[in-house]
Specification:
The complex is a heterodimer of chains A (153) and B (741).
Chain A lengths: L1 E6 L2 E6 L6 H8 L18 E4 L2 E4 L12 E3 L12 H8 L9 H14 L5 H7 L11 H13 L2
Parallel strand pairs in A: 1-5
Antiparallel strand pairs in A: 1-2, 3-4, 3-5
Helix pairs in contact in A: 2-3, 2-5
Chain B lengths: L23 H6 L14 E7 L5 E7 L1 H4 L4 E5 L9 E2 L6 E2 L5 E2 L5 E7 L2 H10 L1 E6 L6 H6 L3 E9 L8 E9 L11 E6 L5 E5 L4 H12 L6 E4 L16 H11 L3 E4 L2 H7 L6 E9 L5 E11 L7 H10 L10 E8 L14 H19 L3 H8 L20 H10 L28 E12 L9 E9 L2 E6 L8 H13 L4 E5 L16 H24 L3 E2 L3 E4 L2 E5 H6 L3 E8 L18 E13 L4 E12 L6 H20 L5 E2 L2 E2 L17 E7 L16 H18 L5 E2 L3 H4 L3
Parallel strand pairs in B: 1-14, 10-31, 12-13, 16-17, 20-21, 27-30
Antiparallel strand pairs in B: 1-7, 2-6, 2-8, 3-7, 4-5, 9-17, 10-15, 11-12, 11-14, 15-16, 18-26, 19-20, 19-25, 22-23, 23-24, 26-27, 28-29
Helix pairs in contact in B: 5-6, 8-9, 9-10, 9-16, 12-13, 15-16
The chains are: A alpha+beta (153), B alpha+beta (741).
């Protein structure tokens, strides 16, 4: 079946044969490999995207259900030339090591800051508790986002 | 030659700074290419048939039905291996595909190549395979009793008849931890059209892969080129060959690029894990708490094939006592061979297992003598000029154990729990813990780890530096697994050459020699050391040729005047230099485990503060205070990241993470059942450094990758014991171990 939906502000069409996840379609069909496939079980958050205003793990969303939806992936959040404040903060604080979890953290944190520009430390940790990072121990990610939360006017 | 009024600028981003990592921008925007993102025109996909049994004879293997699946182009089995039948890090004991029998659950039997991944998986299902199940050997003690092992190690040092005034004994177990790097195994092989192949697959050491791959393909070494690729973490899981030979075989047979990508469930059997361990200890000390004698028996389960088990068991034995002086040490250690999935490298490499045991023993001794846990460690602290307790090797390099313990003691203790906010209670927002029942505990872990490769291994790193008018290129085959080696190389090159523009070129096995493995906490010292030494020699060559006394991005200087520009230096001839850097020679030990096996060591000291709900068995690790032995701090942000990240892996082993095996079958090969620490499980970590320069390596710097993981676990275990007043002899410590303990 043909699914048409909006991805990062652009109208896109995907040819979906059946049970593929939104993640698989983004990565393998639409040329958007920024969303990562670490567990494909909804546990690690590395495939997080914003779907119709809510953060979801795209590995658990059937692409066939996305007709008419609006999707924002990490590729739609900032660019190499113009980083989103969350991306800049993570970079500045050394919160990126292997980086495989980073797209999911960027998507989830950018959405958090949109909803709540001054989250507390506890709110940051809770909002990102569905995103697993195996490298950093979360310390640098916490420092980056806490500073951003304090500095956002 | 020109003279000019240009002033000499101090370079930015040198040693001691924390420059932004150059791969950071593509990583935050999603544009960084990992192995799983690679693509080539016309590529095919491959999938693997794996053994459903821990031990079985293959009675039928008919691949014809797979070819009946539309889109399947090739099925490979052991019959298709034209060269050496097997591979392995140290010995080629593992067949490329199961050779008539399966020795562990998940062992590859066949690979199906098809137009896309779903079709390849259909092909795998279509293969007609039958088994005769055999009784698997899955208990490490039974394996030891049957002499099924890959290495026995013996430490015999001092006098077995001496006795201490105080004796403590203990039995300890460490469960099996998975590295769980977020990026699964993935790779792409591209045939070169001339009988050779270029491989882009996850690896901590592309040259080791190369040495293992080409004999199996029966082609010339230079016909296989292994390329460094983007990786989503490693932690030991990327040291061994997994899909590499399969990819190359499929590419050579089909003449098409081949992609493979394991999913998470397959990844759990697609790489080796940390060795689970059983350990029996007896410590004897005098009335002052000074160690008199330590005896230990260690069994680590190495699974079905050797991998790096023989080096892991050596580490377990050499570091069985920890960073403490003791002249009478007797250790028997064995790497058991079973039908469990193979075990191999994971961050800490044998040291993690024995650290849990020796630190538990030190606490027992302290309790017996009424001493403070840090005081007994301080009284025994090993340092420069001492003999290593196990091998007797004189410690010539840096080993500031006592300084670390004193620094740790001086760090302020975490604030008491003063909140009934459920987010700060054990169990979190499950709202199940009554704050009045929470008990706080404090515990310590002080540990020792060797740096770089030991036991006479010819350990080296090749680096080539090329100078051009626009900057410096550093060629290396070192694996950047996320740790930030890229930045360390840049900083060291900048520091010496005083040229800011430094590019790191990740070169394949056809372009440059081995950098050695990104493991054993070794790359900062080895490839960092190679970069530093190579830059020094290149600088000296240029200064000698032009009669200068200083070099910078502007050019060559003499007495404060610029005498020749960098452009002119580069125009007058190719400016490149290549070196092979080695650490001090090490030696195999004798039959008693005595000798100079190690080039260097690092210590770490951690204090854990935990809150425990003893009724529900819930634990919250509140804070870890960590003091680390860094030799010379090259990059504070990168070092902090290694310490915080490594610490959380130690916390994970102590409180959450364990592969559950039932007769050799992993029962929790997914992230729903294999639990990893989340943001809410992560303690606050306070870090201090001790800088006592090492005798070799760049500017005295030491590796920092593994020590945090080794020390954190024992500290957390001790803190939980301290909170509930019970003996806990096994990690991970799960709720059922706490309730009623």
């Amino acid at each position: 079946m043909i699914v048409s939906f909006t991805v990062n502000g652009e109208e896109r069409i995907a040819n979906v044969s059946g049970p593929e996840s939104l993640l698989t379609v983004l990565r393998e069909e639409l040329g958007l490999p920024g969303s990562k496939n670490a567990c494909e079980q909804g546990e690690c958050g590395s495939c997080a995207v914003v779907l119709d205003g809510a953060v979801v793990t795209s590995c658990l969303v059937m692409a066939a259900d996305c007709e008419g939806s609006e999707v924002t992936t990490v590729e739609g959040i900032g660019s190499d030339r113009e980083l989103h404040a969350v991306q800049q903060a993570l970079l500045d604080h050394g919160a990126v090591q292997c980086g495989f979890c980073t797209p999911g953290f960027v998507v989830t944190a950018a959405h958090l800051f949109e909803e709540n520009p001054h989250p507390s430390s506890d709110e940051i940790k809770e909002a990102l508790s569905g995103n697993i990072c195996r490298c950093t121990g979360y310390g640098a990610i916490a420092r980056a986002l806490e500073e951003l939360a304090e500095g956002t006017a | 030659m020109t003279t000019s009024p240009i002033t000499r600028k101090r370079v930015r981003g040198g040693v001691g700074d924390s420059p932004l990592r150059i791969d950071g921008i593509p990583k935050v925007t999603g544009n960084f290419a990992y192995a799983s993102d690679l693509y080539a025109d016309g590529m095919l996909w491959a999938a693997t048939l794996r053994s459903p049994h821990a031990r079985a004879r293959i009675t039928k293997l008919d691949t014809a039905p797979a070819y009946a699946v539309g889109g399947v182009v090739l099925v490979l089995t052991q019959e298709d291996v034209v060269g050496r039948p097997g591979f392995g890090m140290h010995v080629p004991d593992q067949p490329v595909f199961a050779d008539g029998e399966c020795n562990y659950w998940g062992e590859p039997i066949a690979v199906v190549v098809a137009s896309d991944l779903p079709t390849a998986k259909l092909g795998v299902e279509a293969i007609d395979v039958e088994f005769e199940e055999l009784e698997p050997l899955t208990d490490m003690e039974e394996a030891d009793a049957r002499d099924s092992q890959t290495r026995r190690m013996k430490i015999r040092r001092g006098d077995r008849d001496v006795e201490g005034a105080v004796v403590v004994e203990g039995y300890y177990e460490v469960g099996q931890q998975d590295q769980a790097p977020l990026g699964n195994e993935a790779g792409l092989a591209i045939p070169d059209g001339d009988g050779g192949v270029d491989l882009y697959a996850v690896s901590q050491w592309v040259h080791s892969d190369h040495w293992q791959i080409y004999p199996c393909l029966d082609i010339e070494p230079e016909q296989v080129r292994c390329h460094p690729v983007g990786m989503g973490g490693a932690f030991g899981a990327r040291e061994d060959v997994s899909m590499h030979i399969h990819l190359c075989m499929a590419a050579l047979r089909t003449g098409r690029p081949i992609k493979m990508m394991y999913d998470r469930a397959e990844s759990f059997v697609g790489h080796v894990h940390r060795h689970p361990a059983r350990m029996w200890y007896r410590h004897e000390a005098d009335n002052q708490g000074r160690l008199v004698k330590v005896e230990a028996r260690l069994i680590l389960d190495g699974g079905a094939y050797e991998s790096s088990s023989n080096a892991v068991i050596a580490n377990a034995a050499y570091f069985a006592v920890g960073p403490y002086r003791c002249d009478n040490v007797f250790v028997d250690a064995v790497a058991a061979k079973t039908n469990n999935p193979p075990a191999g490298a994971m961050r800490g490499f044998g040291g993690v297992q024995t650290a849990f045991a020796h630190e538990s023993q030190m606490d027992k001794l302290a309790a017996e003598l009424g001493l403070d846990p840090l005081e007994i460690r301080l009284r025994n602290a090993l340092g420069r000029g001492d003999a290593l307790n196990t091998s007797g090797q004189l410690i010539e390099g840096s080993l500031p154990t006592a300084e670390l313990i004193n620094e740790l003691d001086a760090m302020p203790l975490a604030e008491p729990l003063d909140s009934d906010d459920a987010r700060h209670l054990p169990g979190g927002t499950g709202l199940t813990t009554d704050p009045r029942h929470v008990r706080r505990g404090v515990g310590y872990g002080v540990t020792l780890k060797n740096l770089a490769f030991s036991e006479a291994f010819d350990d080296y790193s090749d680096v080539r530096i090329v100078l051009s008018p626009i900057g410096v290129e550093v060629y290396t085959a070192a694996a950047e697994v996320g740790q930030g080696m890229v930045t360390i190389i840049q900083q060291l090159a900048r520091e010496v050459l005083q040229i800011e523009q430094v590019a790191v070129v990740w070169a394949d096995t056809g372009v440059i020699g081995s950098a050695g493995s990104t493991s054993a906490s070794r790359q900062t010292q080895m490839t960092g050391g190679a970069t530093h030494q190579c830059a020094i020699e290149l600088r000296e060559q240029i200064l000698a040729e032009f009669g200068g006394d200083d070099l910078s991005g502007e050019g060559v200087w003499k007495d404060g005047e610029l005498i020749v520009t960098l452009h002119e230096v580069c125009e007058s001839g190719p400016r490149e230099h290549e070196i092979r850097y080695r650490h001090p020679e090490t030696f195999a030990t004798d039959e008693n485990g005595q000798g100079d096996a190690h080039p260097a060591w690092a210590v770490a000291a951690h204090r854990a503060v935990v809150d425990v709900d003893p009724e529900l068995g819930l634990v919250r690790v509140v804070q870890i205070d960590a003091v680390h032995d860094v030799g010379r701090l090259l990059n504070p942000v990168a070092a902090l990241g290694q310490i915080e990240g490594g610490t959380l892996q130690g916390v994970g082993l102590a409180t959450l993470e364990e592969l559950v095996l039932d007769r050799g079958v992993i029962k929790n090969a997914n992230f729903t059942d294999y639990l990893l620490p989340t943001f809410l499980d992560a303690p606050h970590v306070e870090v201090k450094w001790v800088e006592e320069p090492e005798r070799w390596g760049p500017l005295g710097a030491k590796g920092i990758g593994e020590p945090p993981t080794i020390s954190a676990g024992p500290a957390v275990a001790a803190a939980i014991r301290n909170a509930i007043g019970a003996d806990l002899i096994r990690v991970p410590i799960l709720p059922q171990h706490i309730v009623g303990a």
